[in-house]
Inverse folding.
């Protein structure tokens, strides 16, 4: 295998092509060996730009620590590397982006507060939780507000404020059953969940936006390029099958498809920040 001094400095196009070689080699190695670790670590570094790309959309999020998000996204990248099968002839980024963004969204889901509260109250919530645990063991009962205030050296009003703030850390589940009115028969009927009575985003709207954005871009492609896209994503033919149908090599098909997809992705990004998510799906 070639030795790469600084994989993170490679151009994206070079990293994509070399990653294919490294993935083929990785699948032939025994896990735990020194060469396996080298190849796997090099793949992580060569594709680190995918994490940076995914993190961009979260940079303006309030209370977001970019370094933490990059680390979380890298976990998703590693999972994608471990699960990628080069025999399927799919682009690695197609598998990697959902893993990366999924880990980031899971991080926000698990660490974000349902309602934003001051840092002082967030820290007070932790102190109260520790005091409750300590006093419950010491007193052999649940501590009162007065007990907590005395233990923490705070006023009862401050403790009450902290207890109210703790309620903002989680929110009610949309799947929780809602109370139903009593029927004439006297028994309480089974209620609907809150999600069933609330409006929701229409999943197809994003598809409509994608089509509206892509349509004029596809019209600018040559007939041959549109045919190749149709064969690859419409008929789901492999690159080898496309090459056989068009009388060219699989490598030529790969280069042309990469060029077309790169052009479409860059063109969609020119539409502004709202197109960032759609551009990622074209990778």
């Amino acid at each position: 295998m070639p030795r790469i001094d600084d994989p993170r400095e490679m151009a994206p196009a070079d990293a994509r092509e070399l990653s294919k070689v490294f993935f083929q080699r990785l699948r032939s190695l025994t896990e735990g060996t020194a060469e396996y670790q080298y190849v796997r670590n090099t793949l992580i570094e060569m594709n680190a730009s995918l994490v940076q790309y995914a993190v961009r959309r979260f940079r303006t999020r309030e209370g977001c620590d970019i370094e933490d998000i990059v680390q979380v996204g890298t976990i998703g990248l590693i999972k994608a590397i471990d699960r990628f099968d080069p025999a399927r002839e799919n682009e690695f980024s197609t598998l990697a982006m959902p893993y990366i963004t999924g880990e980031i969204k899971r991080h926000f889901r698990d660490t974000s507060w349902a309602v934003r509260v001051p840092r002082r109250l967030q820290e007070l919530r932790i102190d109260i939780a520790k005091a409750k645990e300590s006093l419950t063991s010491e007193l052999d009962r649940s501590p009162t507000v007065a007990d907590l205030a005395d233990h923490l050296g705070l006023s009862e009003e401050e403790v009450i404020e902290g207890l109210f703030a703790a309620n903002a850390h989680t929110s009610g589940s949309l799947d929780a059953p809602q109370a139903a009115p009593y029927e004439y028969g006297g028994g309480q009927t089974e209620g609907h969940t809150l999600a069933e009575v609330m409006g929701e985003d229409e999943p197809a709207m994003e598809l409509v936006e994608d089509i509206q954005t892509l349509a004029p871009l596809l019209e600018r492609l040559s007939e041959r390029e549109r045919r190749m896209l149709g064969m690859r994503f419409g008929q789901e033919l492999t690159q080898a099958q496309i090459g056989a149908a068009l009388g060219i090599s699989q490598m030529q098909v790969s280069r042309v498809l990469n060029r077309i997809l790169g052009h479409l992705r860059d063109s969609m990004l020119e539409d502004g920040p709202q197109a960032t998510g759609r551009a990622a799906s074209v990778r």
